[in-house]
Amino acid sequence: MKRILVVDDERDLCEILRINLELTGYVVDTASSAEEALKHNLSEYDLLLLDVMMEGMSGFDMARRLKADQSTAQLPIIFITAKDAEDDVLRGFGLGADDYITKPFSLRQAMARIRAVLARTASMTSSVTPSELSHQGLVINTQHQTATADGQPLALTKTEYELLCLLMRERGHVLSRSQLISGAWPEGVVVTDRAVDVNITRLRKKLGTYARYIISRPGFGYMFNA
Question: CB neighbours (10 Å) of residue 184?
Answer without folding.
Answer: 22
